[in-house]
Design goal:
By secondary structure, the protein is an all-alpha fold. Helices cover 68% and strands 0% of the residues. It is a multi-pass membrane protein.
């Protein structure tokens, strides 16, 4: 006897029907918000790399085998997105453009 559980997969075609309901009028504003967020992340990442490793390391002695570099490159975007979504519920790009996204 087969029972329906709350974990059962959705009906076939459920996700494809949901794709048609995405409003395309706000897509340009959403892309602008994402571009603003990535600009902030790249500036923040550059600042953290300069403070962590120093200017001479960044300009002359770049070693991609350094695990601290990977830690910084992964931790900064995670802290950015996690911090803003956790505290404010949206990233600064979306908060900046929120009047036009509604």
């Amino acid at each position: 006897m087969k029972m329906n559980s709350p974990i059962s997969p959705p009906a076939r075609g459920y996700f494809l029907s949901r794709l048609g309901n995405i409003p395309s009028s706000n897509m340009g504003m959403r892309l602008l918000a994402v571009a603003f967020d990535w600009l902030l992340i790249s500036l923040l990442l550059t600042l953290v790399l300069l403070l962590t490793f120093g200017q001479t390391w960044l300009l002359y002695q770049v070693s991609y085998a350094d695990s601290a570099l990977y830690l910084v490159v992964v931790a900064v975007p995670l802290a950015y997105f996690g911090g803003f979504w956790g505290l404010l519920g949206a990233t600064p790009g979306k908060l900046l453009l929120s009047p036009w996204l509604e």
